Amino acid sequence: MIAPNHIATAGHCIYIKDEILNTAQWCDYIVVTPANRSAYPSQPYGMALSQIVEVSGYWHDSFDSTDDWGVVELDTSFDTGYLNLSAPSGDIWGWWVRGQGYPADLQDMYLIGGNIINNTAYQFVFNNTSERGMSGGPVLDGDQNIIGFITAHDTSNGNAIVLRLRDWHVNKFMSYR
Prior knowledge:
By secondary structure, this protein is mainly β. The protein folds into two domains: 6-74, Beta Barrel (Thrombin, subunit H); 96-166, Trypsin-like serine proteases (Thrombin, subunit H, Beta Barrel), CATH 2.40.10. Helices cover 8% and strands 38% of the residues. The strands form three sheets. It has a six-stranded antiparallel β-barrel. Strands 1-6-5-4 form a four-stranded antiparallel sheet. A hairpin with a 3-residue loop joins β8 (110-119) and β9 (123-129). The N and C termini lie close together (10 Å). The model has no long low-confidence stretch (mean pLDDT 87).
C-alpha cells in the first residue's frame, strides 16, 4: 500500500509476459486483500478490485526487468496505513533488508531477511531464499522504509532480485497520496 487506495508492485504482476510467445497482456482483474491469513478467512480488512493499472513504459514495451514496476488503483480505500518510501543512494552492499510477500502456495505472508550481496543503480540482490509468488512484495531497510520491490528470484540459489527505488519512483508513488 502506497496510499489508502493505491498499491505499488512489480509490473509483471499486472502486465504479464508470455515467455514462450514473447507477448504480454493486462490482467483481467486484480483482487487485493490486505493482511490475508489462513487464520482469518473472513478477510480482516475486506477486499478491493482494481480500477486502473499503470506499468513502467520500459516494462510494457520491452520487458526491461530493471524497470519492472506498476501501480494499481483500487475501487475502495483501506485504513491499514502504509510505510514510507525511500531511495537509497550510493553503495548499499551489506545492508540488512527484509522482504515480504505471499508465495504462490501459501495463504500467509512470508517474511525473509538477508544482506544485500550485489547492487546497481537499478536493482539489488539479497541473500535469502525468496519464493515464487513473492514478486511485487516490498523490501524494507532497517528503518522500515520501502526501498524496493521483489521482481524475481535467482533459480540457482533463490536469492531475491529487487527493483531498487530511485528518487523519481518515490516522487511518483508519493503523488498518489
